[in-house]
Amino acid sequence: MQATNDWLGGYVKWFTDLPANNGYPRTVIFYLADPMVVVEMGPVGVTRIMNGDALHRGVQSAKYTPSFFSIDYTHTYDAELVVADLKPRNCRTVGLVAKGALPNAFVTHITTALGEVKFTDATAIVDKIKAIKSAEELSLIRACADMQDQVFATVLDHIKPGMRDIDVIAFAQWQGQLLGSEQGIFLGGSAPLGTASPFLPRYMQGRRLQKGDHLSLLIENNGPGGFYTELARTIVLGKASNELKDGFESVREAQAYTLSLIKPGASCADIHAAHNDYMRQHGLPPELRLYAHGQGYDLVERPLIRSDETMTLEAGMNLAVHPGFATESIFAVICDNYIVEDGGVSECLHRTEKRLFELPI
């Protein structure tokens, strides 16, 4: 397996406890009977023997090479080290995890160099295990949700007219880091009432807030230990319009409806279909993207509550549930996390109230 980032690179972290960062490839070889071998950014020709290093549990050695996706002639460097480790072990079968995330040059090199080896797709094997969280993992997931509640509360005390969207978002990110977060994604955008305020990326967060404006905020960072949850609410600098209130109530009720369907053994595709029927019956647009999904070391991981998901729900899964819809005049959204339990769904992991936050200005 290989990853280049900590947002959707959870396989690498799940196996080794350490994430990939900053676009640099980190490759992991997990042997049936031997400790793992890692290939990552570092000085050419250097191999470090771990000898029980507490930070690299289960890793026998790390092999280093300075490869970059932006430098084409380095695209096989990582693969060459992988081949050099596999060949002497006389492997006969090699499973690729999340093969769509493996670069073409990487896969081409190892499959050509190891021509006698049978290559298989091992992703589903790993996904089945990875999706069900241990008691320790669930504790860290709850800690992440608690951290995001604290971050949102500090934003409510900090936000005021005259600030730019980026000032609010950067403050939220800073507060998360003070509470143990490593990284994540913070999206937000403001607008006058009567104009939709969708989630916007950092380079589009230059608008300056005025009295009466509203801001949609998504806090999607990881917590202590590296697990993800996500929290989304709308903040109004004054009084919300009835249209915005009605929109939020619609998505709050849609979330509650989906939660009523979550239980072990439930089909994700059936829940998605039921959600879209619910939305249509209430005069709302069906979900064509993704409104609920698993989370762990990845911002988005299986199972997806979507028509193409074959996995069924099981106790111990961590789900983010965020129905929403947009018109020209409103962006209605809510997002919280829940755990699938034996009897259905847990209480909400986030304690932030499910309401619009109208601040006296």
Task: Please outline what is shown here.
This protein has helices spanning 10-16, 77-86, 104-113, 123-130, 135-158, 165-178, 242-261, 268-281; strands spanning 2-3, 26-29, 36-40, 47-49, 59-64, 93-96, 118-121, 184-192, 213-221, 231-236, 292-294, 301-304, 318-321, 324-326, 331-333, 336-341, 344-345, 357-358. The protein has 361 residues and is α+β, with helices and mostly antiparallel strands. The chain folds into 2 domains: 2-130, 3-Layer(aba) Sandwich (Creatine Amidinohydrolase, Chain A, domain 1); 135-358, Creatinase/methionine aminopeptidase superfamily (Creatine Amidinohydrolase, Alpha-Beta Complex), CATH 3.90.230.
Task: Give a verbal description of the structure.
It is a single chain. This protein is of the alpha+beta class. The protein has two domains: 2-130, 3-Layer(aba) Sandwich (Creatine Amidinohydrolase, Chain A, domain 1); 135-358, Creatinase/methionine aminopeptidase superfamily (Creatine Amidinohydrolase, Alpha-Beta Complex). It contains eight helices and 18 strands. It has helices at 10-16, 77-86, 104-113, 123-130, 135-158, 165-178, 242-261, 268-281; strands spanning 2-3, 26-29, 36-40, 47-49, 59-64, 93-96, 118-121, 184-192, 213-221, 231-236, 292-294, 301-304, 318-321, 324-326, 331-333, 336-341, 344-345, 357-358. α2 packs parallel to α3, α5 packs across α6 (165-178) and α7 packs antiparallel against α8 (268-281). The radius of gyration is 22 Å and the shape is globular.
